[in-house]
Records
---
Amino acid sequence: MIILFVNLFLVNLFVVFSRRCFWLLPRRVHFILDSSKSFFKGLFNIGVGDKTFYSLFYSLFYFFLFTNLFSNVPLSVSPTLYYYYTFSFSFVMWVSLIVVVFSTQLSEFFAHLIPFGAPMFLSFLLPVVELFRQIIRPLTLIIRLSTNLSAGHIMLYMFSFFSLSSVFLAVAVFWLLLFLMILEVRISLLQAYIFTSLSYLYISETL
Amino acid sequence: MKNLTVLSFLYLFIYLFSLTTLLSMSNLFIIWIFIEVMMFIFIGIVFKDSVVTSSFIFYFVIQRLASVIILFSVSSVSYRYIALYVFHFFAMVKMAIFPFFLWYYNVVKSFSSFSLFLVLSPQKLSILYLVYVFNVLHSNQLNILLSFSLFFIVFSMLISSLGGLIISDLKSVLIWSSLVNSVWIYLSTFTTYTSMLLYFVFYSLVLYYLITYSDWLLNTKNNQVMLIWLMFVIIGLPPFPLFFIKLYLVVQIFTLVSTPLVRVVLLLLLCFTVVAIVIYFRIVVSILVYQ
């Protein structure tokens, strides 16, 4: 919980005080902000044409990035490891998406349940499959994020116990743990990207 | 629901997210902040959606004045005993309980269907949770607080059940019945978290069906039958689940405080609830007779 609040506070402080209107000359903060923006743009290709949800996905990506990275600190717990926490993000996003879609473009939504060019005998089965795909979207988002993160953490935790059994094994386990740690950092970077890009994909696909 | 745009997704996301964050907090100040965030986002939704701006401004000013005084009372409750009562008093202003109910009908009736649902359900849930956390934090003075609020609660039940008798269209019935139900909601803050959310979630589900489909609900005969069933559900007569939730609430209040005064007052409350049934039955009868 403390990590979460520190993370939120840092991100907000960074975003608020690095606005150009607070400064006469460009500072080091602006370099960081600009590079983070260009990094984001290079990853997602969002902010060019569609500026509507740019700020949402920008903040969501960096929030998940830092929260996932904080989970790699030894003996710490990150909220994104738990289904409860990530479910609150994805479920709320899904509910608001469904409400907006149902109230603005209901007939288009149901028309998309049968893809263009599908054969007639499949059109009895395809809407059910497509509806199921729509419904399990928040679940797939959270399972992909939390399970990938926690699986690596559990592996780290298990292998750290092998080092207690013998001294000779501990040397080998150390290098394995180091390798796993590097892998974990990369996974936590990747999962933040995957969560944000998939939620962007879902929203741009349905809206 | 017709006036929502694609941009409303952003508003709805922040609105629901602050609601879920609020429901997982236990600090009164943070809950207060998230109530204000929800209010700001509510402006964004309603201004896309609203018909009459002046009534919304009226709603905004009342809610904001009450929440400022709630903030003062929360911050001074540790060294001013009267702040306990001030808090409940202005929570009643936000929930439109008896002495402060006159603004409610005139303001809310001009809202469109989706913003009407937001006013009646999630905006009340935030205040409800604030009052609940306040009651839990001051559970040693709960007897006094309950006896204080029961006076207003009973009068509110009487006034709102009588006031509902002068109107006959569906939307006004929903607004007056929300006044009746907000009394039960306010009473449920003195009980446990589970029963509080049970009553609220069930009520808001029925309300959602009634509000969103109230435009086309009266068209065909099937829809009229559907409306009558929904009316029976929201009345809370014995075979329907809302009755048992209300019974559970009353039993819990009885076990919590069992002074003779509270018993008499709760009996009066139940009597006035029977009066409130007439509001719904007028709609049901008008459908059955004039179809």
Note: Chain B touches chain A through 18 residues (CB under 8 Å).
---
Amino acid sequence: MPKIVVEIMPKADLLDPQGKAVNNSLHRKGNARIVNVRVGKRIELHFDSEITDADLFEAREIAEQFLSNDVIEDVVDVRVEA
Amino acid sequence: MKIGVVTFPGTLDDRDAARAVRLAGGSVVNLWHADANLHKVDAVVLPGGFSYGDYLRCGAIAAQAPVTQAIVKAAEGGLPVLGICNGFQVLVEAHLLPGGLIRNSQGRFICKDQALRVESVSTPWTNGFSQDEIIRIPLKNGEGGYIASASDLERIEGEGLVTFRYVEGNPNGSINDIAGLRNARGNVVGLMPHPEHAVEPGFGPDMDGTMRSGIDGLRFFTSVLNGLVNA
């Protein structure tokens, strides 16, 4: 099924409590190589026919205006996946 | 005077808000998320809770609901709107107020009686307070940290839109201790703490050695009702 994948991350300068908790847990398990973890979102928009340029354009708008909030998040990628 | 109280799936404090309106002397119209008809109410309260399970972002899905779209239009025409806690989150997601709300800085849900300074009394929801009056009402949320872009913050402070500021310590990392805001016109007010839980002696915050006597929240509702009567 063709789909558009939207990836959203909390803004780099904002505290990411989820990422911090995961990072702390990794350190407790003894992983010293990973110095930081940030947790974002992957959202899939599914289509039942081939995705057009217009679909992708609209998906970018949806990603910017509804799926993310530009005060606190960045849309890092909007792409078609087979 | 009819005050609409909105219920989304996941709203928790709609009945408390309705009770506060009645105790203040108003009548309540229950507004349902899927119904774009505001039933000729004179003002609207968006209560707290976890609308749509806080899915996507707090308030984001509720901001798209038919009733919210109707409220946005009516607010642009001057309808008094009060957003409490999740209702405040809905107002920022609906772009009626600037900025956003993120997880509390210490990462925990907070439930406590909170002191606030009322910094703007030129709104229908705060005209019964005196300028810089200190009030005490409950605060209970996990994502109450207010943030705004540098340019929005400059405008908010420059235009005096900060309506409530946390005092006696910042509980959640909100920028500039901001607890609540109004829009430029003043008819739309949003805040994280809960006035509707401080409206009846015996059930409010502890005040000056008297247990649970705090009713500072009641004046939000008497303010709007008095304003409507005098309008």
Note: The first strand of chain B starts at residue 2 and ends at 7.
